[in-house]
């Protein structure tokens, strides 16, 4: 940045917020404009820079020849590599623009027959478009603090028309009807989504049964909560995102629309339960090319209490066969049925443990009083079996 003479730039919202003349982002919801919070930019591999239009213009000028104040910083060969079309991105509906390709970090396009290199950028409440016309040694940089907005494209094309001396095209007249159509379509989509909802349905469980943590090894942790006074519905939190959940139908809840925030609007969270009716999973379509991502309920309740696990140790019997439950030095339980290998007990929820290496097999410890565990209950695909604690002679 320094060789190019950048004076106003940063890579964080803190730097932007501290700037004396820093712009503030705005979002549009239909015809309603609202201020948006300064959201952290996590896409730094794609840029993630805060800067001014004057500084970005210096970058556009640099892309003409790879020089800063006459001093080469980028070889001509490297610049050619960057601006050579490599990946076809599609074709514009407007014949003046035509096909678009991606080079190395730059769009390789044409406008009314002239070669252009460009790149856009956007974030919550922001929009940018930088376009360079190498053969004319000219460029256009447009920054907006409102999104979505067609201003970047409208102004860029208007300036390029003036630079080329061609008859101006009324790009505003082209884009304005599209915006009105999009607003009408948005309202239609909302009605259609509501019409597809199965009305008159209820969650299968009391709302408190959905509360808890759910985890996935790659996608992290979803926390489902309720207010302490239980006066509200469910809330979700996931990697800095969150808010109230709306009941859609059955055991499906959806995230709210937050057009002014970085948020997955109207995303469905489907709560699933095991064969005995306990809520134990959440499925969500985080990725469009794979199946729903399933988050497993995180162990909670008595199973996480070392004192409870200590109460579980001892000998139980079923049909005359001894069953030993032991606790190791780290507080983990194991189960040994006479004549079988020892199996680890993995905390599940409440007073129930999974039997390691056996899918669908669980052990529940019955606790009739705070100081007593008097039986274990096997939950298996083929039935439920009670093993009372052995009576000491």
TrEMBL record:
Regions of compositional bias (Basic and acidic residues) in chain numbering: 22-34
Stretches assigned to the Peptidase S12 Pab87-related C-terminal domain: 197-297
Annotated region (Disordered), positions in chain: 22-46
One of the Pfam families matching this protein, by short name: DUF3471
The Beta-lactamase-related domain, residue ranges: 2-150
Protein name: Beta-lactamase-related domain-containing protein
Organism for this UniProt entry: Variovorax boronicumulans
């Amino acid at each position: 940045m320094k060789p190019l003479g950048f004076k106003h730039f940063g890579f964080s919202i803190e730097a932007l917020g501290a700037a004396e003349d820093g712009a503030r982002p705005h979002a549009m919801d239909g015809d309603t404009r609202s201020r948006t919070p300064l959201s952290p930019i996590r896409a730094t591999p794609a840029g993630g820079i805060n800067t001014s239009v004057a500084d970005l213009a210096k970058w556009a000028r640099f892309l003409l020849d790879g020089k800063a104040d006459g001093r080469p910083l980028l070889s001509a060969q490297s610049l050619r590599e960057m601006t050579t079309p490599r990946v076809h991105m599609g074709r514009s509906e407007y014949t003046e623009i035509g096909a678009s390709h991606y080079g190395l970090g730059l769009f390789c396009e044409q406008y009314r027959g002239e070669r252009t290199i460009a790149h856009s950028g956007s974030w919550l409440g922001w929009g940018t478009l930088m376009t360079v016309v190498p053969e004319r040694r000219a460029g256009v940089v447009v920054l907006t603090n409102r999104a979505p907005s067609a201003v970047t494209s409208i102004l860029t094309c208007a300036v390029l028309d003036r630079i080329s001396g061609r008859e101006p095209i009324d790009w505003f007249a082209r884009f304005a009807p599209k915006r009105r159509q999009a607003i009408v379509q948005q309202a239609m989509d909302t009605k259609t989504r509501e019409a597809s909802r199965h009305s008159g349905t209820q969650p299968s469980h009391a709302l408190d049964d959905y509360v808890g943590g759910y985890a996935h090894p790659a996608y992290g942790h979803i926390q489902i909560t309720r207010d302490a006074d239980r006066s509200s519905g469910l809330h979700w939190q996931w990697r800095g995102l969150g808010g109230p959940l709306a009941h859609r139908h059955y055991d499906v809840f959806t995230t709210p629309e937050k057009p002014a925030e970085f948020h997955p609007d109207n995303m469905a969270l489907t709560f699933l339960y095991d064969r005995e009716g306990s809520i134990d999973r959440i499925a969500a379509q985080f990725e469009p090319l794979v199946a729903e991502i399933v988050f497993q309920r995180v162990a909670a309740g008595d199973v996480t209490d070392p004192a409870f696990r200590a109460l579980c140790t001892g000998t139980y019997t079923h049909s005359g066969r001894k069953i030993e439950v032991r606790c190791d030095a780290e507080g983990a339980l194991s189960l040994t049925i006479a004549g079988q290998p020892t199996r680890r007990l993995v905390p599940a929820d409440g007073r129930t443990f999974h039997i390691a290496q056996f899918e669908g097999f669980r052990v529940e410890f019955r606790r009739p009083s705070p100081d007593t565990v008097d039986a274990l209950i096997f939950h298996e695909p083929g039935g439920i079996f009670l093993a009372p604690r052995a009576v000491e002679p």
